[in-house]
User: What shape does this take?
Amino acid sequence: MRTVAQTLAAKAHTEIHSISPDVTVFEAISRMAEKNVGALIVQELDQLVGIISERDYARKLVLLGRASVATPVSAIMSTPVITVTPKESTQHCMQLMTQGHMRHLPVVENDKLVGVVSIGDLVKDVISEQHGLIEQLQKYIRGE
Assistant: This one.
């Protein structure tokens, strides 16, 4: 099973998109759209304090009739944040995400944010592993 470090190394886009907890939700959603991401890490003084996702926006703002231009990110961000380390397995990440109904996991090493893995990243890993296994089995069957 692959590790989170391997998944991060294989990602095409490794930039971590973050935002401050005091900016408006409108700014956060605009940034998500601009960066084509479904969540932003919320940091204050380089410390991970939360995560805001499109799901947070829909459930904690839109459905409650709140205004995105008047609501700070801190009011709807998910906290505390579940994190993983680069040494953990992608299978463990998938279990965490399934149990917690999450689509993004911040990766922290020595109290420093080093990346974010998404459910899409993990699905790509699974597909890649299965493809490799299929190739090995086909070679075995052919006697190569």
Remarks:
- The helical segments are 4-10, 25-35, 54-62, 90-100, 119-142.
- The first strand starts at residue 18 and ends at 19.
- The two ends are 24 Å apart (CA to CA).
